Amino acid sequence: MATSRPYSSHSTAPSAPELPPQSYDHHHQPPPQQHQSYYGQYPTPSPPPSSSSSYGPSGGGFPAGTSPDVIRAFQMVDRDRSGFIDEYELQQALSSGYQRFNLRTIRLLMFLFKNPYDSLRIGPMEFAALWSCLGHWRAVFERFDRDRSGKIDLMELRDALYSLGYAIPPSVLQLLISKYDNGLNFDSFVECGMIVKGLTEKFKEKDPGYTGSATLSYDSFMSLVIPFLVSYD
Amino acid sequence: MATSRPYSSHSTAPSAPELPPQSYDHHHQPPPQQHQSYYGQYPTPSPPPSSSSSYGPSGGGFPAGTSPDVIRAFQMVDRDRSGFIDEYELQQALSSGYQRFNLRTIRLLMFLFKNPYDSLRIGPMEFAALWSCLGHWRAVFERFDRDRSGKIDLMELRDALYSLGYAIPPSVLQLLISKYDNGLNFDSFVECGMIVKGLTEKFKEKDPGYTGSATLSYDSFMSLVIPFLVSYD
Known about the structure:
Chains A, B: Keywords: Calcium. The structure is a homodimer. By secondary structure, chain A is an all-alpha fold. The first copy, chain A, is built from eight helices and one strand; from the N terminus they run αααααααβα. The radius of gyration of chain A is 18 Å and the shape is globular. The termini of chain A are far apart. In chain A, helix 3 runs parallel beside helix 7 (about 185-205). The interface between A and B is large, with 44 and 44 residues. Strand 1 (about 215) of chain A pairs antiparallel with strand 1 of chain B, so a sheet runs across the interface.
């Protein structure tokens, strides 16, 4: 065994190998270094080419190389040309490339991809990062929806999250999936995955040494968790 | 200063004194022992008198002394006389004494008052405890809704939760209340308060010495938090 650390922190590649079927309980065993990650990372958009301007000619604020479809999707809903879109506009903008997401999922996406200056709106940089992340997740979803049912089940969810870099304990998976009576479609998968991703990120911030444990004050615990409890009227 | 502990753990009495206005930032200061509690406790129903049977003559499973109204509310919805009610039946049962709660609030109540044998239904004991808890919270809500608007604001929420035994940091309060665009009516207050109560309880289990901090493994953190993320389709 190469390491005694409970998990590695670098495996977030979409090409991470699938779990072998017998390793469902792998989190109880010392994990192989290359195959295990409790902690994922926020996907980062590709850095702009260093030799050119960071911004495309027509896409103010977008990273260079952003697909015109993405820029168009954003600009179509940013009617006042403020350069920022709110949650309803985001819902509409994503419809053109993906689907009409549940407003609950949209709010979670807004929270996780928010810009540092305005928590209620996102700009071109955040939109491009979000679009790219969803594209990646869509591919993962389709890859693991092996029976092409448009939904994934518990085992497929496990494998899909693992492929995204999150090795979720069976008990936690069970909790997650129990919230979706009708199975996980792509919308629910995104919501569910973003909850895992967001909570893992936040927890990881409190565990800089990747020990697998974190000491939290009551205040920081509450402040960490409550933003995820999306409970709008 | 009598103690250097960051908070005491016993002050959950509804008669806890209100915070003086100047102590809004009291959590940053060493708190007075008798006036401060970050941690609340689940309200426990009054123990049955030791000299009598624990069960009323007509209310199978209810604690002795349970009001006939409560027994009736339960039995009216427990049509199959199974002795257990599900979330929809709970919603209906509570309507007779309180109001028709949001299903999200109902699910949170089910989760927090669940019986150990069946997480999807509650029995007479749990129902009686829940009813009594809501009665207490209703009184607190009315006490702090000083302008009788039927809604409470940030400062009223702070005082109400404090009166219930929870001293919530201003930043957390702000997060909580930001989820309710239209202010907190009693339904939202119960949802919001039950989130605080539930998370505090769970955190406290990880901090048996009441130090104000807890060390959590990633798995236990995820398992603790995810049940609160009510995300039903």
